[in-house]
Structures are given as C-alpha cells and as structure tokens.
Amino acid sequence: MVASTVAAAWVNRWDAQQERYVADREERFAVLCDIVESSLATVAAPVVLDLGCGPGSLAARLLARLPQARIIGLDYDPLLLSLARTHYGDTIEWVDTDLNGTEWPKHVPNTIHAAVSTTALHWMPGSRLAELYRGLATRMAPGGVLVNGDHLKNGDERIDALAETVRARRATRVGVDTNEEWWPWWDAILADPNFEHQAEVRARRVAERQKDDGHNGNELTVNDHTRLLRTAGFRSAAPVWQVGDDTVLVAVK
C-alpha cells in the first residue's frame, strides 16, 4: 500500500503538470461543477460518472460540491487509479475499466444523472467514442448532462492555430508555461519503487494498446462531437465556455 503522503505529493505534482497545458484548469473544473450542480439541483441522490478520471482531481471537486452524490471514477490506468484511491479514499468509487472496450457498462448503474470528463476523451478513436456516447445516452436520465472539458478543434486551420496561440500566451501570463511537462512526470513516477507493481501492469496494457491500431486517438472538432452526441440520443449539445481551444462542451439528454 502506497503511503498517503507519497500519493498526495504525486497528485499535487500531477495537478501542477496538467496546468502547464490547461492554465485555467481550476476554472474549467469549477465550470464543470457549476453545470452538474445546477442540472442536478432537484435530484436527491444523483449518480455521476467521471470518464477517464485519472488520479481523481475532478471527481474530488465534484464530491465537494455534491456530497449527496454517488461519484464513480472510471479509468484504465492502474497507477493513476492507485493514486486516486490512496489520496481521495473510498468516498468515491474507483473502477478499473477500459472505456474503449465493452466491459465498462457492467460497472455503471442503469440510471445515471451526469457524466463528466476532462482532457481524456480525445484519446479515444472516433468510432469508439461514438459507442461510448451511445452507451451513456441509454443510461442518462431525462435532463441529465454529459460535460466534457478538453482541447477541441474548430476545423479551420487558421482559427485552430490562433486558438493554440491564445492558450499558450495564457499559460505564459499566469506563469505555468515552465511547469513540469507530461513525459518527465511519467518518467519519474514509473521509476518510483512505490509503484513497481502498478507500473508493470500499466506497461502490459500499453503494449496491448500499441498492437491495436484502433487506439490512436482522434482529432474531432466541436461540430464532430456535437453531431456524435445528438446521434447518440442527446437532444442538444453545444460549448458553454472557452479560452482559446480549451472548451467545455455540454450535452443534455
């Protein structure tokens, strides 16, 4: 069992690393929580999924806003889930499952009231993301929301380039452009003997995914996402917040 102090240090380092790429990460989290809290104001015991929950940063913030909710974090990275379980505890349900696969619905109640994700769904191939959206729509209660915060393209090369410039200059202005990068964080934690077992399991899963050409991510635009969501069964979908290409997209069932 990893010590809680070790997990806390790694989660804090993760949060700082992520801010290099999402300078307004805390504001994005707050916006996602605002939307979910407002949408579920009349639901006594809501069920909320965090898709690709990583080490639990968003799930924990949601629980602070909605202490009456059942929060379920789903991820396929055993190392990040280990951090989440140790740092945030069992007040949130942490589920080891692959959103790209067919097993995740077994871990989800038949009725859910919201699903959230942040900087995760862009890793999924478009066809499998469409399947995920359909699976969520079938379980989503009327009036429920799916809220996705991510770097989403517009589809116009010039606009997309300008949006990336806005994001980069925002990071410079708030002083996070020199924060630790993605790969050095991973190199460091994978070398930490506290996570030897999780690192081995993760390496096997990464190797399996590399054999599968269907796990190469996507370049879906905002319009692509809204089309997939409406086709899946959500009655409306549109962005509600944006800084550069950093977007919060909401779909309502």
From TrEMBL:
The keyword Transferase applies. One of its GO terms (biological process) is methylation. This is Methyltransferase family protein. It comes from Actinocrispum wychmicini. The lineage of its organism: Bacteria, Bacillati, Actinomycetota, Actinomycetes, Pseudonocardiales. The keyword Magnesium does not apply. It holds the Pfam family Methyltransf_25. InterPro entries: Methyltransf_25 (IPR041698), SAM-dependent_MTases_sf (IPR029063). Residues 48-144 form the Methyltransferase domain. Keywords: Methyltransferase, Transferase. One of its GO terms (molecular function) is methyltransferase activity. Signal peptide: none annotated.
